[in-house]
Every structure is written in structure tokens, then in C-alpha cells.
Specification:
This protein is an all-alpha fold and about 60 residues long. Helix content is about 75%, strand content about 0%. It is elongated and about 40 Å long.
Amino acid sequence: MSIIYIIGVVLSIIAVLDIIKKPISLVGKIITAAIVLLTSWIGLIVYFLYAKNHLTEWFK
């Protein structure tokens, strides 16, 4: 396995665990996790740089 692949898997797991901990609805968690996982590196970058801090206000 490539080191980049392993980093991507680890970051994906961290992102999904962080999404699960957020105080948003179950539907919001599922939508956000699916988008992050289906968009690969772009989804991870957008999540960690922008969306992570804005999820609770988006899914009020």
C-alpha cells in the first residue's frame, strides 16, 4: 500500500468520527459523511479547511 493511500484512509476516518461527534441531526451527519467520503481528497480538504467549523450552523 502506498503511504498516500494510508494517509487518506486515516484522514477519512478522523473526519467521519469528527462528523459523528457534531451536535447536528442524523441526516446532516449522513449527508456530510457521504460527501466527504465520496469526494476523496477534495472533500477532505474542504472539510478540514472550511466545513468543519461551519457544520453546526448549516444543519441547525
